[in-house]
Amino acid sequence: MNIQAFFKLSYGLYVISARSGEKNYGCVVNTLQQVTAEPPMLSVAVNKNSVTAKAILDSGHFCGTVLTETADLNLIGTFGFKNSEAVDKFESFSTKEDENQIPYLTEHVAARYSCDVAGTLDLGTHILIIGKVTETEILSDEPVMTYDYYHRVIKGGTPPTAPSYKGNLKPKTEEKPEKTARWRCKICGYIYDGDPLPADYLCPICGQGADKFEKI
Ligand SMILES: Cc1cc2nc3c(=O)[nH]c(=O)nc-3n(C[C@H](O)[C@H](O)[C@H](O)COP(=O)(O)O)c2cc1C
Fold first, then answer.
1. What is the set of domains in the chain, with CATH numbers?
2. Which of 1, 30, 122, 181 is most exposed, with minimal Cβ within 10 Å?
3. What is the best residue among 9, 50, 59 to mutate for testing ligand 1's pocket, by most ligand atoms within 8 Å of CB?
4. Cβ of 15 less than 6 Å from ligand 1
């Protein structure tokens, strides 16, 4: 099978969130999509290791938001590479709560969908969750973040937990060489300006060590 064929699929970028017990959960996904209009339903594929997935299944609710192009690597690094049990991902962002007391981002997002879990399908590594939309909100008219924009302009990476994981991105061949050497985190795409990269350096976005950086 030619896996390059999968790279032709296009996506957007989203944050899904949930609340279970007294705790807030959230993660970046590229797999949120509308599947029916009447009734309005969304689906999302979540990795079984994601604690947000567990919170969604435990609580029976989730909230999806559409990221805009203004979302930066700090936001995507927080929600896309960290664990909601280890850090409060929402604390440094402006948020509101939906009808199920689930927090959602109010900046760098274009729309919000609050959902009840209507069904699930076990896909091995991931669970496909179907959500019945109970409330929607338009939050901005900024252009929405596409997966292509995230990789090409923001130069972000994708962790193996994303169904669309393509391995580590290499710099594009048409990129001009930098005057000073720089280092790129192979996990999240964060760029360290300067050379050498300190041996004890930790990526400020995803927390990986210097061994996960490549010179560009
Ligand atoms: C660009 C991008 C796309 C992602 N897409 C998905 C996805 O569709 N499904 C998924 O389960 N995880 C996806 N992830 C990974 C999760 O966001 C990541 O594993 C997160 O740390 C999980 O957080 P949690 O354990 O707090 O739930 C994606 C991450 C990035 C950066």
1. 10-149 (2.30.110.10), 169-216 (2.20.28.10)
2. 1
3. 50
4. no
